[in-house]
Amino acid sequence: VSNNAVTEGFINESPYVYSFSGIDSTKNKAGINLGSYKYDVQNDIWTTISSLPDTMGKIAAGASFVNGKIYIIGGYHVLPNGNEVSSNKVHVFNPFNDSYEADAAPLPLAIDDHVQCVWRDSLIFVITGWSNTGNKKDVQIYNTYLNTWQAGTDLPYNNNYLAFGASG
Fold this sequence. Notes:
Layout: E1 5-11, E2 14-23, E3 32-40, E4 45-49, E5 62-66, E6 69-73, E7 76-78, E8 84-86, E9 90-94, E10 99-101, E11 115-119, E12 123-127, E13 130-131, E14 134-135, E15 139-143, E16 148-151
Antiparallel strand pairs: 1-2, 2-3, 3-4, 5-6, 6-9, 7-8, 9-10, 11-12, 12-15, 13-14, 15-16
């Protein structure tokens, strides 16, 4: 699996690695999927978990572990005609019971291939990325406690700052 959303997570201080959606080894649009997995670091065991609850396969999403939950943000779908559509969905996974909760508030600007990072186990910063037709300079900030979004300071709109497929 590649172009998947990956993050660490902890259950009672035991470390796990989680993988959500992505593309399989065929590397074609038929291989884009919603498959999800967790890796038990201490016991070296991969387990299949429930698929990401979305309408169709998705790639280029981001995932972050915040305050005991995993937030899978954005990504994009490849339609049967080959067109790509960025996602505004925020899926919430609870690692303590291996289940998805109701989706969180949607992204104000649908985004994929973005930089996603956590501040003080409470805020998720979604920085730059691609939305449907081009790179975006937006910084979107999600408050996991309030389930709200706010706009951050935009990046300068030039190739030194805009990203596509970056990580952070």
